[in-house]
Amino acid sequence: MADQLLVRLYNVELGDFIYLCVPDANRDVHILVDCGTLSAMELLTARLEDLKSALPQDANGKWVLDLLVVSHPHLDHHKGLTPENFDDFLIKNLWLSPAYDRSNPNAVGFFALKDATLRALNSLAGFAEGQLKLEVDGLLAMNKSEIIQHLCDGMGQGLTPRFVSAETPAEDLQLFESEDIHLEVLSPMANIDGYYLGGTGLDASLRAADPGFSFDAETLSAEQSEAFSKFLTQGYERLYPAADQGEPDLPQNISALDFMALRSRLKSNALALAEMTGKIENNLSVVLLLAWHEQRLLFTGDAEWDAAYEGAVKPGRCNGAWNVMWAERKDQLAVPLDFLKVGHHGSENATPWEPKEDENQPEHPINQVLEAMLPLNRKSEARAVVSTERGNRYPTIPSGPLLEELAKRVSNVRSDYVETSTSKHILKPNTPQPQRTDLERSASGEPLPYIELCFEYEEEID
Asked: What is the tens place of the pLDDT at every residue in 438-454?
């Protein structure tokens, strides 16, 4: 008899809500990866009711999840994880991105940037009007502190969250009895400031304000990372301190006028700061590889890639998560996949592939990552799904050229999708593309609540 692994990607419009039922040696293991949306909570609540029908119950009538993984702290990935929604669930293990972990000594620069961003946005919200106020309010809601705190407190279930990274020991990730089934975390690295933050966002004049500190961005060592993080922290706090800290001290080697101008730019560039913080948080997504017997399934969160420096990783710089994974975890990525959860809802910067502008242009080095994971000559064995919605807020999500490329590499391709949006980024009718949660329909034309894929394993009997 064949075992059957089930992957269900719920239609929550723009967001990730992914359920896995993984047959183990003597039981099924139930996993939830993210539970978020940018739409109304009512949509998530309805999907949670559907999820319950797939889960076992304990003696107290609680719906049991063996593992909840939260890829990163954005609403479209964690909005549904509220006390009200999960009061009748029993969660046995909780894995969170290091983007939630304020105790990490190599992430203090990142959290200083995040706090400065929130202070700047709150300042801007005080006088913003019209479309700008809507944008600022949306950005403030994106990192809803109540949900973040609830997750870090163990969701009120007495759980101790595990902040997982690529360096988390394999024994701490062991969830299965069978030796042929295991989970790996391929990203992010725990050294957030060294790999993903770099010096981004610090003005050169601010750097000069502390002549006692220096570092070589090309050769930043592990020993320097904590000092580097503290330096960044001091920088962001000096530029835009908390309200109860009073006015910041004036650096000795920068004029009062220049320093005030620098602070003013930080306030006025609150949206740019928010974009930078959001980018880093995307790159701190937990990228999860499930090896189930001989099949490999990759769940990518919103991890991004960076085309700069031909895709090379530079210490002390804001590197893309895919670039770092390829540099640090190439052995795990360079084996073909059986399933890919297309990153960041089909965004053009989230799947490592750069289209050529003309046939004579050489391939970008980042393209070797996609070729390794989804080789063109293995199309019939791979599948991919995009959990997305086409909206006006992010018109390039999903990216048409990317979807066309993926359709050449996977088998679960649809050519009958018709988009009603007027965006120039939509695909023409009958253009092959992978399955999308927003466009799957029943025979009567109603939106389907989820896309379900099954993977089989036939155990050999001697």
From this structure: 999 998 989 999 999 99
